[in-house]
């Protein structure tokens, strides 16, 4: 641990979960760079596969107050272009910016990502990715100065519940059902097919998938799975609940061979109808790649989703020779 008269830097720990959650809530309000997380979510992040908080995270305190955080994670597989992904998350409280804290934490994250790459994927190039939040976020100035550039934009969409009624349409030869806990393996295999052609996507290993699947915030009862006549999973909607009145659609996928048949629309409509019957749920939200070639944005807007805001992912490419 290093320190000065008023500032200390140390790894984050599970005991820090309440302060981390409070800071993330602040960063969401100021920058729109993260979703809203509570203590349960933070503990899941710090305990996720491949994460070692003592080595992979840092927190900055002034007095006893946590004013800045960062953590970094490296994926287990390369994307279609042969790059691995290093995700950097965190931020600095708005009242403590312009003191070099953000640059210091970003430098730590880059060094740690390089070390993880040498350890897990020696000789391979990687992307450093971090949220640049909404257009008014001041974090973008730091990212551009440190060599990052906008790589992709994302739309946050929302639909009121119950909203306009959605007809029950079932594509021929397809059966829909709520997601069951035991569907994990089959849905993962469908996900690997469905996201193979998505920007920046890399195969997710069984351990990380299980961590996501078993999250305390998962709502399998409101998710939907589509099976063909042979019983194979050809599509899925996975849902989670991070806020008391809102259902979040975490993943939507249809395997390439089954696209163009209205399966995604039918699955989403099923999830929305069931969510509308849950007391206390007032909206459904999701995130979509604004540059997706699958027509996803048109699909969602046709189901009554409306644009809430746009966020941007920033990226820096690190060639293998630099690792």
From TrEMBL:
<dbReference type="GO" id="GO:0016747">
    <property type="term" value="F:acyltransferase activity, transferring groups other than amino-acyl groups"/>
</dbReference>
<protein>
    <submittedName>
        <fullName>GNAT family acetyltransferase</fullName>
    </submittedName>
</protein>
<dbReference type="InterPro" id="IPR016181">
    <property type="entry name" value="Acyl_CoA_acyltransferase"/>
</dbReference>
<dbReference type="InterPro" id="IPR000182">
    <property type="entry name" value="GNAT_dom"/>
</dbReference>
<dbReference type="Pfam" id="PF00583">
    <property type="entry name" value="Acetyltransf_1"/>
</dbReference>
<dbReference type="InterPro" id="IPR050680">
    <property type="entry name" value="YpeA/RimI_acetyltransf"/>
</dbReference>
<keyword id="KW-0808">Transferase</keyword>
<keyword id="KW-0012">Acyltransferase</keyword>
<feature type="domain" description="N-acetyltransferase">
    <location>
        <begin position="7"/>
        <end position="173"/>
    </location>
</feature>
<feature type="domain" description="N-acetyltransferase">
    <location>
        <begin position="174"/>
        <end position="319"/>
    </location>
</feature>
């Amino acid at each position: 641990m290093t320190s000065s008269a008023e500032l200390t830097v140390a790894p984050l720990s599970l005991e820090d979960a309440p302060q981390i959650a409070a800071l993330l809530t602040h960063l969401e309000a100021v920058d729109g760079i993260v979703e809203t997380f509570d203590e349960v979510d933070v503990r899941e992040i710090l305990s996720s596969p491949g994460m070692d908080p003592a080595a992979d995270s840092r927190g900055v305190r002034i007095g006893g107050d946590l004013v800045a955080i960062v953590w970094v994670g490296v994926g287990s597989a390369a994307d279609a272009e042969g790059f691995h992904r290093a995700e950097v998350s965190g931020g600095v409280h708005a009242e403590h910016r312009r003191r070099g804290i953000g640059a210091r934490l970003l430098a730590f994250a880059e060094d740690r990502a390089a070390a993880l790459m040498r350890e897990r994927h020696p000789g391979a190039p990687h992307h450093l990715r971090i949220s640049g939040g909404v257009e008014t976020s001041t974090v973008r100035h730091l990212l551009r100065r440190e060599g990052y550039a906008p790589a992709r934009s994302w739309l946050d969409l929302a639909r009121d519940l119950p909203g306009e009624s959605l007809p029950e349409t079932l594509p021929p030869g397809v059966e829909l059902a709520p997601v069951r806990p035991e569907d994990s393996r089959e849905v993962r295999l469908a996900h690997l097919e469905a996201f193979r052609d998505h920007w920046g996507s890399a195969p997710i290993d069984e351990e990380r998938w299980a961590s996501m699947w078993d999250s305390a915030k998962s709502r399998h009862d409101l998710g939907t799975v589509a099976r063909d006549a042979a019983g194979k999973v050809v599509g899925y909607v996975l849902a989670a609940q991070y806020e008391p009145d809102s259902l979040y659609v975490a993943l939507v996928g249809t395997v390439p061979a089954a696209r163009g048949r209205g399966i995604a629309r039918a699955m989403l409509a099923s999830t929305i109808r069931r969510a509308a019957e849950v007391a206390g749920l007032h909206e459904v939200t999701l995130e979509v790649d604004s540059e997706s070639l699958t027509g996803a944005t048109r699909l969602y807007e046709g189901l009554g989703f409306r644009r809430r805001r746009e966020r941007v992912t920033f990226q820096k490419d690190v060639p293998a020779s630099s690792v």
